[in-house]
Amino acid sequence: SMIFSSNLSDISDSEIIVEAVFERLDIKKDIFSKISDYLSETAILSSNTSSISISHLSSFVKIPENFIGMHFFNPPPLMKLIEIVKGNRTSKETLDKIYDISKKLGKEPVIVNDYPGFVSNRVVMPMLREAIVALEQGVATAEDIDKTMKLGFNHPMGPLTLCDFIGNDVVMDIMEVLYTEFGNPNYKTPILLRNMVYAGKLGRKTGEGFYKY
């Protein structure tokens, strides 16, 4: 059965906790500092972060050996992939347990070392950025940019549709993390994306992004 609660002490008997708040270091740090007092010494604490260093996040928890990354993909009930991210202090026991649990959940886990963006977002963010810049420069319409990638490269979803699905604010947060870590202009947030986020055009969740819903 599923129980909803706003009382942090209710997690005291939990064996595995998955944090899934906004992709911002300050918010995650606050969450970890609050829940650490309620966790048992054997509980595994994981983060669903898609870009922030697991080793960095582990510095905010009491037992970093029990801390690991579990990056689920949206929508989780349909997407089978899960990135399991090892921090520099993650124990082998923690890694093995999370791998086994991921398989029991019907997922296909991949084990990733701790680099910003891991595999998925490190590879996909430059593509999303270029699609946004192409739109910004008037190379083609949003519809035709997406159509090109769907029909030309057999992608199930165009990059601008994907941005709207992820949430344009989340895409911007991930790009900011990667640009800060790597200094690579391929991760620099386009002006168009930044202005859309400031205007509240976050995608499906607000009814408007690169498309209207």
Automatic annotation (TrEMBL):
Domain 3-hydroxyacyl-CoA dehydrogenase C-terminal: 117-213
Gene Ontology biological process: fatty acid beta-oxidation
Entry keyword Oxidoreductase: yes
Entry keywords, A to Z: Oxidoreductase
GO molecular function annotations of the record: 3-hydroxybutyryl-CoA dehydrogenase activity; NAD+ binding
Domain 3-hydroxyacyl-CoA dehydrogenase NAD binding: 4-114
Keyword Oxidoreductase recorded: yes
Family under the similarity heading: Belongs to the 3-hydroxyacyl-CoA dehydrogenase family.
PANTHER family xref list: 3-HYDROXYACYL-COA DEHYDROGENASE FAMILY PROTEIN, 3-HYDROXYBUTYRYL-COA DEHYDROGENASE
Protein name per its UniProtKB record: 3-hydroxybutyryl-CoA dehydrogenase
